[in-house]
Task: structure prediction
Amino acid sequence: MKIKFVGLVAHVTLNGGTAFETQIAALPAAQDHLATLSVPTPLIDDDPDHIGHDVNNISCFPLSGCLTFPNLAPGPAAQQLIAELPSLSKVTSAGNLSPELTNCPPDPAVFFSVVHLPRGGRLMPEDFFKYEVDFNGIAHGPLPHTMVYLVATTGQEVLYIGPHRVVLKAGTDILIANVCDRNVNYNHFQNYKLVFAPPATTVFDPDDSKQRLCSFYTPPEDLPECAQGADLEVDCSNSHFP
Result:
């Protein structure tokens, strides 16, 4: 199974280095953003609560509460290839993690949804923004546009979006997006302050104004219309902690 992440998504390792380590992906509750899970409609085997809606043969499911995979045990990722992914421990004033990261459901004013990822997967970039970025005037380098989590599965993929059960055909790729409307223009990255409690007082925004071309840039796939189809800028990108 491949799970793709675009927009405001914080990849957080909880209890790192212990027997209780788990990997989650948290979608901050950003103003004017829409959190969705989308898949090709023909690959849905069951949606008994009818929470998905089809646009052009792609079905989007609104994300709220916890997203879990009951047939796949949660736990640590096997590999994290995240050198280019901004660390919130470096680009914010950080602090204590929000307790909402472990609440099911989380407070919807803090996180739209928290994804509890299956153990043993590989987290890595799939594609990058066109230009390298700086944070607070310091060069960061290439910035991932899309992150993916790869994990081996067999048979149908069963997931719960809050209390709602959804069943997908074997091998279905999932897209998770937390993006805003095309016409909204503000510093989206600031919403990563919500990963901490109290919220981080300083969040540095990614800046691509120097237009240093990323040498391995390739145009990303278009987002489906039901996920708002926004053309993302660098300030609406993934991050990680720690």
Observations:
- Residues 2-221 form one domain.
- The two ends are 25 Å apart (CA to CA).
- The chain has a mean pLDDT of 95.
